[in-house]
Specification:
The protein has a single domain, classed as Sandwich (Jelly Rolls). The protein starts with 17 loop residues before the first strand and ends with a helix. It has a 6-stranded antiparallel beta sheet with strand order 1-2-3-12-6-9. It has a 4-stranded antiparallel beta sheet with strand order 10-5-13-14. A two-stranded antiparallel ribbon has the order 4-11. It is built from 1 helix and 14 strands. It is mainly beta and 137 residues long. β13 and β14 form a beta hairpin. The longest helix has 12 residues. The radius of gyration is 15 Å and the shape is globular.
Length: 137
């Protein structure tokens, strides 16, 4: 009888950063096709401003280094952020290179400049594609 594998050990230092649009890079740590949840390390270059977006499920973030300016204030290394389902951000800004751990329970939708039209989606499918890209290296 085969024993199911319930655990996962990831060594982020062994993963390559995968560049994503807008001056960011990611290391995808986990993707759940069953629930839509995903976890990733994100790195934003100094001066990066992420597009306006809405959280379509709860998410939390742990600041590893740098600074994140967002609607809730300013987060620095060691801070933890929780965003509920439906949280809307006009934009988030990184005045210095920033690395943070994102644990999203579902998709994050990105808006066009009009603030209404969705032009991008970070969901389990897009995270799986990034994970497969980093595993090919």
């Amino acid at each position: 009888m085969e024993i199911p594998d319930f655990g996962l050990l990831v060594r982020p230092e062994e993963l390559d950063w995968v560049e994503t649009p807008g001056g960011n890079a990611m290391k995808v740590l986990r993707v759940s096709e069953e629930t839509g949840a995903w976890s990733a390390l994100l790195r934003a270059a100094k001066g990066t401003t992420n597009a306006p977006h809405i959280h379509l499920a709860a998410a939390d973030f742990y600041m590893v280094s740098g600074v994140l300016e967002y609607r809730g204030g300013v987060a620095r290394a060691g801070d933890w952020i929780y965003e509920p389902n439906g949280a809307v951000h006009e934009a988030t800004h990184h005045p210095e290179e920033t690395v943070y751990l994102a644990n999203a329970q579902g998709p994050i939708a990105f808006y066009a400049e009009d603030g209404k039209t969705i032009v991008g989606l970070s969901d389990w499918r897009s995270m799986k594609a990034i994970q497969e890209q980093q595993n090919r290296r």
